[in-house]
């Protein structure tokens, strides 16, 4: 089947993996992270629980990130970050819609306009307004500090997620056991996929159950390496070698190269044929 692919699909474009060192967009990242948490918490409030927190994630699209369809009583709607038009779009199954522009504005302003837009569409929602997995936990409605949005850097982040999604989807398809979708966790701001071993996971103290153990490589522009207490990655399943710092798969942690310009990202990007290198290095 590989030989049936068109030259356009086979081509490796250096610019498909844009540079994005954290220091170049850290303020935009911090603001966008909190905007995404607002939308993620709306999804969390409305969707039925699924183990491994799969009901809370976003999905990569050809234009940005989406919540996918969400129930509101008997109605359905979804919310989409569009990084080509730079807007947050709300679309309902009743053929109604609303949009919020993505531009330099405070988290508080974005929060209030988002909830007002939903209310205007007869979709009022209440969420817990404290951000998670960040040091500054100022509630959204009070956060006037984070107010940056650089269109170019936000779009580069999305384009990197597009390429990572493509690679992780191939990685997922080569495993015949249980796997997660390729999805974006808005709390830790990373794209992940999980392969499961089939062996039971330890009892989790939280509300949700975790059915079995797994390992998930992921891509994040956030600073540092974050602990991931909600997954049990203790089994020697293969990570895509080109997507992990130092060529090692970390068990029980989120892999995070500190920024998209870090060594775990630079190595495949600066290769003449980054896609071929990634394909050759993981089964």
Overview of the structural elements:
The chain has helices at residues 7-10, 22-46, 107-120, 151-173, 263-269, 274-281; strands at 59-60, 64-66, 70-72, 75-82, 87-92, 97-101, 183-185, 190-192, 195-200, 212-215, 218-219. It is α+β, with helices and mostly antiparallel strands. The chain folds into 2 domains: 22-142; 151-281, no CATH class. Strands 1, 2, 3, 4, 5 and 6 form a 6-stranded antiparallel sheet that branches. It has a 3-stranded antiparallel sheet with strand order 7-8-11, with helices on one face. It is globular, with a radius of gyration of 19 Å.
| Structure classification | alpha+beta
Helix coverage percent: 25-40%
Task: Measure the end-to-end span.
Answer: 16 Å
The secondary-structure element order is HHEEEEEEHHEEEEEHH
Give the integer mean of the pLDDT values. 75
Total count of helical runs of at least 4 residues:
6
Largest sheet: 6 strands, antiparallel
Question: What Rg is obtained from the alpha carbons, in whole angstroms?
Answer: 19 Å
User: What coarse outline follows from CA principal-axis ratios?
Assistant: globular
Domain count: 2
DSSP E strands, number:
11
Low-confidence stretches: 1-11, 209-219, 222-264
Percent of sequence in beta strands:
15-25%
């Amino acid at each position: 089947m590989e030989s049936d692919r068109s030259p356009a699909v086979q081509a490796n474009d250096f610019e498909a993996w844009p540079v994005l060192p954290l220091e170049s967009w850290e303020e935009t990242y911090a603001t966008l992270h909190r905007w995404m948490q607002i939308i993620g918490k709306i999804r969390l409030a409305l969707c039925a629980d699924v183990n491994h927190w799969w009901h809370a994630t976003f999905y990569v699209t050809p234009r940005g990130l989406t919540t996918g369809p969400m129930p509101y009583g008997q109605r359905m709607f979804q919310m989409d970050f569009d990084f080509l038009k730079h807007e947050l779009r709300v679309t309902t199954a009743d053929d109604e819609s609303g949009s919020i522009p993505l531009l330099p504005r405070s988290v508080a302003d974005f929060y209030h306009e988002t909830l007002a837009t939903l209310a205007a569409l007869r979709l009022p929602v209440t969420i817990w307004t404290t951000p998670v997995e960040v040091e500054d936990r100022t509630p959204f409605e009070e956060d006037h500090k984070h107010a940056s949005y650089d269109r170019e850097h936000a779009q580069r982040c999305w384009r990197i997620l597009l390429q990572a999604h493509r690679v992780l989807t191939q990685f997922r398809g080569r495993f015949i056991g249980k796997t997660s979708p390729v999805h974006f966790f808005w709390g830790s701001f990373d794209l992940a996929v999980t392969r499961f071993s089939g062996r039971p996971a330890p009892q989790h103290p939280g509300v949700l159950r975790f059915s079995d153990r797994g390992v998930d490589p992921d891509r994040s522009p956030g600073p540092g390496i974050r602990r991931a207490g909600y997954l049990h990655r203790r089994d020697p399943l293969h990570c895509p070698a080109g997507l992990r710092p130092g060529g090692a798969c970390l068990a029980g942690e989120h892999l995070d190269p500190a920024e998209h310009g870090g060594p775990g990202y630079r190595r495949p990007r600066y290769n003449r044929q980054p896609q071929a290198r990634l394909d050759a290095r993981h089964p």
